[in-house]
Amino acid sequence: MSARQHTPDLRADGFTFKRFFIAHDRCAMKVGTDGILLGAWAPLRHESRILDVGCGSALISLMLAQRCEGRVPVDAVELDIAASVQAAENVAASPWRDTVVVHQADIVEFSCTTPHRYSLVVSNPPYFAAGVACASPQRTQARYTSSLSHEALLHSVSAVLMPEGRFCVVLPSQIVGDFLFLAESLQWHLALRVDVADNPRRPVHRVLLALTQAPIDPVYSSALLIRDELQQYSPDYRALTQDFYLSM
User: Fold this and answer.
1) Distance between CA 199 and CA 225 in Å, rounded?
2) What's this protein's function?
3) Cα(first)–Cα(last) distance of the chain, in Å?
4) Would you say the pTM of this structure is higher than 0.85?
5) What is the CATH number of the domain that holds 81?
6) Integer Cα distance of 35 and 124 in angstroms
7) 81-140, pLDDT tens digit by residue?
8) What is the pLDDT of residues 129-143, one digit of tens each?
């Protein structure tokens, strides 16, 4: 059966998309809007190879594989053993089992040993500074930068990104300024920015960024509302995610 013909069965133990299923009961971070936003938005050009840093359940990896119609190899790197096993199972059950490869590895070590270079790197990274521990060490690792600092992440991506490649991330709005200041100090350049709000009455809470190692002029900025005044999905959000959500 081809990828285009594949229709996943509805199941209660994860999240069913139009063309694949994500089980996430062994992953610290469940399927959520952040990952869906990044997987649907990350700009695709003429990609040769894609890297997903901290892939979790492999959600973003499989979204990108779908968008590329399985023509572009995707390496999905995940430090947590349980999450990496589940990610590999999700990939194996998808139409892109021959396209996406899950690596149980630390991205710092992976970036030093992989022979590949990437035209696109994506990450939904840890974003909180060390604080009150979460209920499980697995969730603490996924949420706090003590497991992967933003500086280490930027250095690791720099080591494997092609000269004209792009690094795309999704971050909480309150830390974007510090992240961009750090990135610029490490010779990264902002290419694209999207400020995301839940609805017109709510402030921006997430930001999508595309960074390059070559200066880009001009920098493109835009805004995205997830829901409208009536709390229905906005036309822009529907257009962005309609290839994935069953309800769209």
Assistant:
1) 5
2) Specifically methylates the adenine in position 37 of tRNA(1)(Val) (anticodon cmo5UAC).
3) 23
4) yes
5) 3.40.50.150
6) 7
7) 999 999 999 999 999 999 999 999 999 999 999 999 999 999 999 875 644 454 545 544
8) 644 454 545 544 444
The answer, yes or no, to whether the previous bond of 203 is cis (omega within 30 of 0) is no
Tokens of 163: 């000269």
Calculate ∠ Cα 153-155-156, nearest 5°.
Answer: 65
- Print burial letters for 41-64: b (CB count within 10 Å at least 16), e (below 16): bbeeeebebbbbbbbbbbbbbbbb
Report CA torsion sign: 207, 212, 215, 218.
Answer: negative
Count of residues for the chain?
248
Handedness of CA 170, 31, 100, 224 (dihedral sign): negative
The whole-angstrom separation of Cα 44 and Cα 61 is 13
Host domain of residue 56 = 3-241
Burial status of residue 160 (CB atoms within 10 A of its CB: 0-12, 13-18, 19 or more): buried
Name the residue with tokens 């992976």: 110
